[in-house]
């Protein structure tokens, strides 16, 4: 199968002026048409840098990036036309209404505003009753919805979402993912997503790439990444501190402890009882994408 990739990153290098180390080193991978792809990595790993190069907002020092075969530098207009980018930051002209903002964006791509499509976007993103509101009157979450609509207004075959759900409420997350998943499934729209919510990536993405310190340290199908989990996880709630010899991940009242096998689960429970740690809502489950992510990040030296 030699279809033109939806997105091709080829040996991309980038070092910001004055920076002690490269933001991106030799990053190469392809995303195929119709894929729902997740790009993960800790803060500073290089995700936004890679997306800025893809969107033509920044230049790689070397390497090549193409959208459906269109080079993002040499063939910028075509590459950009095939791409819908939902950026991390909220930047708008406060004097336009929502509908005007979307019409204006259509003009930017040199296409006539398609009012039916604009209405469909507004409807799917829960913005119909805000169509005539000025941008400055909208809440942060509503503005984020407009950013998504703006990225989709020219019906791009490839969409890029850079942490679209950072700081947004559950309702918007669900609305947004339902809509994006539908575009992916029904229209074959390619989706590239970066997120720190690993349960979202696990649920949505067919394939995942992980960046660490500017290098690609994992690239595989989500199911294959999850299949590599070597361990189980003990999850419970507690109000007490755990004994120092237990290596746990603690978030608020929730503790998670890795166990290699059933015998280790028993050993850990005995140790907790012995230390008189009161535990509630005990679950023994398989590791999730977050565990796999932490394992990969700890294993790779970057
Ligand atoms: N304009 C810039 N000038 C100098 N250094 C930069 C610039 N933008 C990013 N960097 C550096 O490049 C590296 C990669 O940053 P980038 O924003 O791409 O990471 P990220 O994976 O998107 O992080 P986050 O998850 O925090 O959004 C970091 O070390 C960052 O400090």
Describe the structure.
By secondary structure, this protein is of the alpha/beta class. The protein has 2 domains: 220 residues, Rossmann fold (3-Layer(aba) Sandwich); 57 residues, Alpha-Beta Plaits (2-Layer Sandwich), CATH 3.30.70. The chain is built from 10 helices and 14 strands. It has a 6-stranded mixed β-sheet with strand order 6-7-8-3-9-10, with helices on both faces. It has a 4-stranded antiparallel β-sheet with strand order 2-1-4-5. A 4-stranded antiparallel β-sheet has the order 12-13-11-14. The longest helix is centred in the middle third of the chain and has 18 residues. The two termini are 33 Å apart. Bound molecules: adenosine-5'-triphosphate.
Span between termini: 33 Å
Number of strands: 14
- The CATH topology name of the largest domain reads Rossmann fold
Which CATH class of the largest domain applies here? Answer: Alpha Beta
CATH superfamily of the largest domain: P-loop containing nucleotide triphosphate hydrolases
What's the architecture of the largest domain, going by CATH? Answer: 3-Layer(aba) Sandwich
How many helical stretches?
A: 10
Largest sheet geometry: 6 strands, mixed
Number of domains: 2
| Biggest sheet strand line-up | 6-7-8-3-9-10
Average of the residue pLDDT scores: 90
Helix vs. strand class: alpha/beta
> How are helices and strands ordered from N to C?
EEEHEEHEHHHEHEHEEHEEEHEH
What portion of the residues fall into strands of 2 or more residues? 25-35%
Query: What Rg do the Cα atoms give?
Result: 22 Å
